[in-house]
Structures are given as structure tokens and as C-alpha cells.
Amino acid sequence: MESTDPQTAAATLAAAEQTRDRLAAEIRLPRGYEPAIGTAIAIQIATAAVGLTAGAGWGALVALAGLLGFAVVAAVQLLRFRRLNGIWLGGLASRVVLGTSPLASIAYAVALFGALGAASRDWWWLVGLLSMAGTTGYVVSGRRWLARYRIDPATHGRGETFLWLLGITAFVVAGCVLLVLES
Predict the structure, then answer these.
(1) 66 with 51: CB under 8 angstroms?
(2) Is 36 in contact with 96 (CB distance < 8 Å)?
(3) By the 8 A CB rule, do 115 and 45 touch?
(4) Where are the beta strands (DSSP E) in the chain?
(5) What does the alpha-carbon distance between residue 120 and residue 99 come to, in Å, rounded to a whole number?
(6) Membrane-crossing residues (predicted)?
(7) Domain residues of the chain, as ranges?
(8) How many Cβ atoms are within 10 Å of 147's Cβ, its own excluded?
(9) Residue 62 neighbours by CB distance under 10 Å
(10) In Å, how far from its chain's centre is CA 121?
(11) Eight-class DSSP state of 30
(12) What is the rounded CA–CA span in Å between residue 18 and residue 36?
């Protein structure tokens, strides 16, 4: 085991922190990221509202198609980010793309539940407006996270653990199943 004096260790650590801070300032989202993720979220909210209030077997397929579409767009955007920047950021994947930040979660939940209520009353124009509103909150949340990450990557670079994301996914899937069974 190699022994290092405290001054050398401190200098090495300071250099690593400087490199991290420089890299954080250079992080960029791929061109077209916000329109792509925003469109996918809007479609996902609208298809969930339509699908879960349809009351027919095809409704679940519509809701599932919207969810699958979002998953594909999210995966493509994460791969494009990796290719552009050469790194993975856990905080980006969970907070920006998957919307686990408080603002994104609240915007998404309000838009989804509002759209479900509007769809149950056949107010399709309101479903569209709420889907766009949810998208706006989602995208603004992503911008805020990226700005904060650039300033303080040590604090904002961490995302949720895989088990936490798996638990949230299981909760959402269970809720969707209950809504489908109820309709």
C-alpha cells in the first residue's frame, strides 16, 4: 500500500475538485433535448388521461403506448447526452429526465390528475392545456437543476438510488393498474 503525505493528498483532492467544477461548467444538453422530452411528457400525460378514462380494453394500450414513447425518448436523450459530454450524470437521469425533482414531480402530478379529471368529463381541450402545462413545469425544472449543478456539482450531481426509482416505478404501475381496473 502506497503512503502519501497529507499535503500531496490535499493537492490531489483539490485538483480533482477543480476538474469536476470545470467539467460541470462545460456540461451541455443535446440540441433539441427540451422539445423532445417536453413533447414526450405532454403525449404521455395526454395518453394516460385518454387511456385511463376510456373504459375500454384499448384504453390501457393507449396509456401504455404513451409511457413506452416517453421511455424511448428518455433513453435516446440520455444516450445523446453521454455522447455529447462523455459522462453519465445520475442527477440528470433521475431529476431532469425522469422528473424526480420536486418541481417536476408536482408539475407532472397536477397536470396528470387534472387531465384525468378533464378527460372523464370529455373536456379534451383542457387535457391538451394541462399536458402542455405539465411539460412546462417539467422542462423548467430541468433547466433549474442544470443551472444549480453547474454552480455546485458536488451537491446536485447525485440522483436517486436505483432502489428508490424502482419503488417509485412500482407505485406508479400499481396506481395505473388500479385506475384501469376501476374503469
Answers:
(1) yes
(2) no
(3) yes
(4) none
(5) 25
(6) 58-80, 92-117, 123-141, 162-181
(7) 30-182
(8) 10
(9) 18
(10) 29
(11) P
(12) 33
Cα 134 to Cα 16, 32, 86: the distances in Å are: 38, 18, 30
pLDDT tens for each residue of 42-54: 999 999 999 888 8
| CA angle centred on 52, ends 46 and 58, rounded to 5° | 100
pLDDT of residue 59: 82
pLDDT for 61-95, tens place per residue?
888 899 999 999 999 999 999 999 988 877 888 88
Residue with cell 405532454: 42
Cα 178 to Cα 75: distance, rounded to the nearest angstrom = 27
Dihedral (CA of 47, 50, 55, 56) sign: negative
pTM passes above 0.85: no
Q: Is the pLDDT of residue 183 over 60?
A: no
Question: Mind giving me the DSSP string for 127-181?
Answer: HHHHHHHHHHHHHHHHHHHHHHHHH-HHHHS----HHHHHHHHHHHHHHHHHHHH
Give tens-digit pLDDT for 141-182: 999 988 888 888 877 667 666 677 677 677 767 766 666 566
pLDDT band with cut points at 50, 70 and 90 for residue 1: very low
Burial of 88 (0-12, 13-18, 19+ CB in 10 A): exposed
